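Record minuted for completeness.

…
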Amino acid sequence: MFYTETIGTDGFMRWAWDNYVYDMHEDISYRYWEPDDGWFIYPVERENKDIAEIKFYSTPRYEMLKQGMRDYEKARFLLSNSNISEDVKENLRNSIKVDLPIGGNNGYGSKTYQNQEERMRVHNQTTLAYDKINEVAIKHLELIHPLVNRDLLREKVESITAELLGEDGEFTEETKAKYTEVSLNNLKEKLDIAKEVLINDDVEQNQVDVALSNLNSAYVELELIPDVQPEIQNTKGFIIGTTNIRVEPNGPIIGTLKKVK
């Protein structure tokens, strides 16, 4: 496929699809070409009635041919795209240029067996072309659809869910007995929005960041029901002005102090 692009043609003719030898299930050697060169598919065993609906077996050669077609079309798309700079395109063109193996031909014009060095040279050229196409494609996609990182938002949703919600997705009775209904409703609203953002493929990074910020705020602002507020003991020193009290850093507010001696 890449050689087709190298010499500037729009395709190539494959000489055989199912040019089978006499006994395909025992000996697939052929006097002129390497084994398998005459076909991309294998026939289904006639005696096997359990797989009668299968017309043929695919082969690694056939699957690699399809991959090559996809890579070739991807390269052509990238080379024709106006959003990609000419320098990048030229680099891509040079990367997908591949040579035919250096070696003799048989009487029919087909390449004969190649030594290990030649096989690896062509293989390495093909690998370089494949990697370069993917590199340019990924960068191009990032320009059109920047990658969105949802990891922190997902971690926060999972943390709150595990701490406050039951298996039914609702707040547990213990949670509802501990925090006020208003603050829980606010948290549930922000939690539902965050879950929607996580499954939406069209969101942008700023939407994820806003959802995370709102969820963090709603969690921090959880308000304990007055009857269950813990007694604050062993408080020493002075606090000038007012301050919120939490049982843990960034945890729910459990009270407010104005001045303590």
Notes: DSSP finds eight helices and four strands in the chain. Residues 47 and 221 are 72 Å apart (CA to CA).
